Structure formats: C-alpha cells, structure tokens
Amino acid sequence: MKVISGAIILAVGLGAGLSGGYWNVRPPVARLAISSSAQQEPTAARKIIYYRDPSGAPYWSAEPKKDDSGRDYLPVYEDEDVSFVPAAKKPPPTAAGARRLLYYRNPMGLPDTSPVPKKDWMGMDYIPVYEGEEQDESGTVKVSLEKIQRIGVRTETVDQQVIVRPVRGVGRVEHDESRLTIVTMRSDGYIEELFVNKTGQHVRAGDPLFRVYSPEIQRAQIDLIVAVGAGQRGAGGPEANKNLEGARQRLRNLGVPESRIKEVRETGTNPRTLDWPSPASGDVIEKRIINGQRVQAGQELYRIADHSHVWVIAEVAESDLGMIKPGTRAAVSFRAYPMAPVEGEVTFVYPELRMETRTARVRIEVPNPDGRLKVDMYADVTFQTGTDQAPVVAVPSSAVIDSGSRQVVLVAKGDGRFEPRQVKLGRYGDGYVEVREGLETGEDVVTSATFLIDAESNLKAALAAFSQPEAPK
Questions:
Q1: Any idea what the CATH number is for the domain that residue 155 is in?
Q2: Is the pLDDT of residue 308 over 90?
Q3: What pLDDT is recorded for position 385?
Q4: 404-437 burial string, b = 16+ CB within 10 Å, else e?
Q5: Contact call for residues 306 and 375 (beta carbons, < 8 A)
C-alpha cells in the first residue's frame, strides 16, 4: 500500500506541474526520500530564507504572501536545495577558497538589499556584494581588485601646481583716448584753401591741413620784424632783446610753428597766409571745416586719431572680476580675423558695474601697426588669470564629488581600500581645483569611477547604521 500511495502522489505531482505551465525541477523522489527523523524535526529550528511561488514560477518574496490564485507562497529554508532557481538567477556557489556572497544591493546605490537575486523597478539586476567588500569602522571602503579593474578606477598623485583659469568675455575696439588730437586755432581767421578735406584721410605730423589768413598773426609777425630791426641797429640795448623775445613768444602763443617764426626773423618778410601743419600723425575721424570758412579761436576743426594702438573694452561678469587686475595678459581674437589672435594687457578696470548686465568694463591695450583693427569691431577676449600665483595643492576636477554643501575626494589606501575624505576647495582652472584643507601632497586620489565607489560607500554606511542597535531611551 505504501508503494502504491507513493506512485499515486508522484503521478499527481507530475500532473500538477504540467498543467500549471512550469516544470518543477525539484525531483519528487527527493521528497519521498526524506527520512522520518527529518520529518519529525521541528520547523521552528530551521531558518526561512525567503518564500517562493507555489507553482514553480520564478517569483520570490521576502515576506509571506499569496499568489493570484490565493495559494500561499512556500517557505524556503537555508538547508534546502535551490536548484529550482533559473540559472541566470542562481547565486554563485561558494566553493573552497571562493568569496562568500553576503547580499544583493540596489544597482542605483539606494539603501535597498535583498538576500536573493532580484530586479529593480527598471529591470536592472541587483548587484552581488561579497565578503571583504563591506565598509570598516573607519569609513574606508574596500573593493575587490576584480571590480576595480572592471569599473576602470584610475588614480593620480596629489601635487602642487599653478592654477590657471581662463576667464572669457566679449568686447569691442575703441580709440586709444591718449592718442586723440584736436586741431584748433588760437586766433580768428579765414580758410583760403583745404589740403585735408575728407574724413578718414591719413595725415602725418607736419603735413599742411589748410591755408589760413589771420589778422592777429599778421600783427604778431610785424612786431617780430620791428624787434629784429631794432636789434640789428643796436638801438635800445638790453630792452631791444626783451622786445625781440617777447615778439617771438607772442607768435608761439598763437600756435605759429617755429619754422614760420624762423622764416620771418631771417628774411624780414611778413607772409599773408599760413599753411597750418598737422600736430600729430593719424586718421582724421572728424572734420568740421570747409573752404572759405571763418573760424574762431578755440573752434574744433579736425580730430585726429592715432590707430597704431587701440583699446579693447571687454565686458567681464561680476563673479570673475576678482581674478582680473592691471597687468593680466589677455588673448583677443576678432571676428574678422578669427585665426589671428592678438596678445594684449589689462591696463585698467573701470570702477563701476553696468546695472543691466552685472558686468564690469576692462580696458586692454593692443598693438595695431598695420591698422587692420577697426573701431567698433567685436572681439572675444580670454584672460589668463592666476599665472602670477604661487603653486598650490591641487587635484583634477574629476576627483571631486560635489553635493553642493559638501565636497569629498576618494583617497586610495592600497589593497583595494578607499577613504572618502571631505575637503575644502579653492580656485578652479585648467581642469584642476585647489584643495585648501583635507589633502597633502603625495597622496593618491581617485580620478575616475568616483561615483561608483562613492555609491558603494554610501550604501555600506547606510547598512551599517541600520544594523547598529538602537540606543536606549
């Protein structure tokens, strides 16, 4: 009767497995082979690991539950076989000398673990955590060498270097105000002929601009001729010399050039008109005179600009203004000549901000010997700040994990151990960041895969906090 009953149970079990759509790969014979002593062993002494779907489907639960048909999930004990778990879901065997699997952690770094393989809500497999990868009491994370190679961990030795940070701004070309010249007369007169009659015309110092008749200059020339004649006759003594020098000085005060004064003194003639010379070299940017015009003393006739040097007025953001000062070198590229940048130097930082843009104006002087730079051209400016600063302790920017209120770097301790260390940062620039506190030269910091190691550290710290006993109240 016992054999017949066993056969009936076996047949019923196989029929239920086929009708449910899943193969129950646990051999039914194994159930029949359980000794009577094992059947009589109290269930309370055995530890339940998890609960599995009663139909054999690959579903598990950490707590007791029911399936869609109302059947209870079956408990799985730690001493039972797990051969029913699909191959992709099986935990790796713990052979002699192999690492012992502790648990599975959330692949996104969340403080969520599972004693069995599972997927998160996005379908990502939970990551196995083995013995030796847990966090020690000092906060150091230990990662296996295999995982270090797999995630591509790279380190760099902390050293001192100069932090050079490029600061960018936009600007435009303007006249060099120190090289502007206004042409005026110091007496009234009449323009009889124009030699420079076009705006933009280039002139050189000494070139005639216009021919003018001035009655006041005529009288001063006559006084000079009289003084020269008295001196030649020997009349008047020392007083004659004073009169001569006074006549010459009156002509100088009227702006008459020395060449005309010398001509009048040596020849004794009184020319009726004067060819007015240009006082500077440059381009005529304003012309307010026409032929035949009557001009008055002090009236602006021409404005001449020397364009051999020009200014670039750059707009710099308020947050970058503290790094720019007179003497800072700047590379200026012009949109008309993008492949030919010009080197310049900051000569002045204007003392006010533009309220609308919260930017400050910075003046850069650049040479323009060929005159290709035109006023009001747009320019892109790059300031090389920090070149005159002393070397400081610095690490690559990729080594810093910045949460906004807390900055951390991972210090490599060797043998797969990494210590998260809080640091105080300074200036950024050229791919590096200054470390004011928290690191010393010679230490190795992680420069790649920092997020993965930091997630490992945060997870293990959270798990350690959960496992600590609650303090008595």
A1: 2.40.420.20
A2: yes
A3: 84
A4: eeebbbbbbeeebebbbeebebebebeebbbbee
A5: no
- What is the pLDDT at residue 467? 45
SS (H, E, C) 109-146: CCCCEECCCCECCCCCECEEEECCCCECCCCCEECCHH
By C-alpha distance, which of 265, 271, 267, 269 is closest to 228? 265
Tell me the backbone φ, ψ of residue 426, rounded to 5 degrees: -125, -125
Residue 472 inside a domain? The answer is no
Q: How does the average pLDDT of the chain come out, rounded?
A: 78
Gap between the Cα atoms of 397 and 423, Å rounded: 13
Asked if 254 and 289 sit in the same domain, the reply is yes
Q: What is the mean pLDDT of residues 164-192?
A: 93
Residue 455 pLDDT:
61
Rounded CA-CA distance 130/89 in Å is 16
Q: Please choose, from the candidates 322, 308, 324, the residue with its C-alpha nearest in 3D space to the C-alpha of residue 362.
A: 324
- Distance between CA 364 and CA 418 in Å, rounded? 48
Tell me the pLDDT band of 149, cut-offs 50, 70 and 90.
low
Q: Looking at residue 416, what is its pLDDT?
A: 73
C-alpha separations of 145 from 151, 153, 222, 447 in Å:
10, 10, 104, 17
What is the distance of C-alpha 308 from the center of its chain?
34
Over residues 37-84, the pLDDT tens digits come to 444 444 456 778 778 888 877 677 778 888 888 889 888 876 664 444
State percent of the chain over pLDDT 90: 36
CA-based angle 301:303:306, to the nearest 5?
Answer: 150
Q: Which residue has the tokens 């006249």?
A: 175
CATH of the domain at 320: 2.40.30.170
Q: pLDDT at position 55, please?
A: 81
Is there a single domain that holds both residue 449 and residue 379? no
Residue 450 lies in a domain: yes
Domain coverage including residue 113: 91-131
Condensed to tens digits (0 to 9), the pLDDT of residues 359-371 reads 999 999 999 988 8
Strands 337-354 and 165-175: unpaired
Helices 215-233, 258-267: axis angle to 10 degrees equals 50
Q: What amino acid is encoded at 337 in this protein?
A: Y
Is residue 278 included in any domain, yes or no? yes
Considering the domain architecture, whether residues 320 and 261 belong to the same structural domain is answered as no
CA distances from 21 to 24, 84, 418 (A): 10, 15, 49
Crossing angle (nearest 10°) for helices 238-253 and 258-267: 140
Both 42 and 24 in one domain: the answer is yes
Q: Tokens 């590096």 belong to which residue?
A: 432
Question: Mapping DSSP to helix (H, G, I), strand (E, B) and coil, where does residue 258 land?
Answer: helix
In which residue are the tokens 């020690």 written? Answer: 136
Residue 170: the pLDDT is: 93
What single DSSP character describes residue 301?
E
